[in-house]
Amino acid sequence: MPELRKDPVTGRWVIVTTDRAMRPADFIREHVVPAGGRFCPLCPGHEEKTAPEVLAYRPGGSLPNSTGWSLRVVPAKFPVLRVEGDLNRLGDGIYDKMNGVGAHEVVIETPDHMLTLGDLSEKQVEDVFWASRDRIVDLRRDIRLRSIFVFKGHGEAAGATLEHSHSQIIALPVVPKSAMEELEGAKRYLDYRERCIYCDIVRQETEGGLRVFLETEHYVAFCPYASRFAFETWIVPRRHRSHFETVEIPEVKNLGWTLRTVMRKIDKVLERPAYNLMVHSAPVQEGAMAHYHWHIEIVPKLTRVAGFEWGTGFYVNPTPPEEAARFLREAGLV
């Protein structure tokens, strides 16, 4: 079983895969599986190569774990955390650790190996969010799990080893340090201003317009004021909700169109870059929060994080967010 180990200085938890330690030769770079290249376990007809599905959309009513699906969710082949077992929190001198209890699932977003997120139909993108929401609602019933993270890496530079369009869901028994920093910063703002910082950001960005490049009925897409990376993009709901899984039908439908449009703009302006996409949401065992506001962050992989950034926590962004937003606005609706 993997372990979670806590850094005693920063309070950051790290997952250590003690059950399948990699040797030096194992770190040879594994390239993305291209269309028509090596075997892809996510393609139709290869269902037996994945773990049995925990959720699938089958428009024609085909049998589970067979072809005929439009979207599947399966447990990860090499999960970083496992559902089985007890947390078994222990002290090891000055150190703290626990068993790597959690969940790790893969959302196979389309049966077509060739399509990217921006290529999918509006309904297909909407279905990705419905599937993610449904899995969060199911996983949060396990009271051991405190934080559920939905994310996507597209392209080798973003850490993907399979080209087939997919995203991932990882459920954790702790709240990650970066999430705690967001929650605490938002709480300080609420205590001082008696308002949600994200609601105020949406209000100021839409009034100024410099960094906004897309507005819809339910969402605002913009390049944040203190963007860490070139063309970093946030999609923030207009309506205050702390938990992604509480979204309602109109909001999910509009999110399908919004994200599809944002990704098409990014693909057009940046020539289909690798990217990371992350859904930021409040801890699942907590009730509604007045200070936190779920949102999506998208980071195109255009530059590399190097020694200065790792050592100081400062990021050097070569493209001002105002300029990035202008390019994305001018891309039009594609």
Helix content: 25-40%
Can you identify the CATH class of the largest domain?
Answer: Alpha Beta
Distance between the termini: 46 Å
- What would you call the structural class? alpha+beta
Task: Assign the CATH topology of the largest domain.
Answer: HIT family, subunit A
Give the number of domains: 2
The main β sheet shows up as: 10 strands, antiparallel
Strand order of the largest sheet: 3-4-7-9-8-13-14-12-11-10
Number of DSSP-assigned strands: 14
Tell me the CATH superfamily of the largest domain: HIT-like
CATH architecture of the largest domain: 2-Layer Sandwich
List keywords for this structure.
HIT family, subunit A, globular, 6 helices, ten-stranded antiparallel β-sheet, 2 domains, 334 residues, four-stranded antiparallel β-sheet, alpha+beta
Could you describe the 3D structure shown?
- With 334 residues, this protein is α+β, with helices and mostly antiparallel strands.
- It has two domains: 3-177, HIT family, subunit A (2-Layer Sandwich), CATH 3.30.428; 180-330, HIT-like (HIT family, subunit A, 2-Layer Sandwich), CATH 3.30.428.
- The protein has helices at 122-139, 177-193, 197-208, 249-270, 307-312, 321-330, and strands at residues 3-6, 13-16, 55-57, 71-75, 90-92, 95-99, 103-108, 147-154, 166-172, 212-215, 219-222, 233-237, 275-280, 295-300.
- A hairpin with a 3-residue loop joins strand 10 and strand 11 (219-222).
- The protein is globular.
- It starts with a strand and ends with a helix.
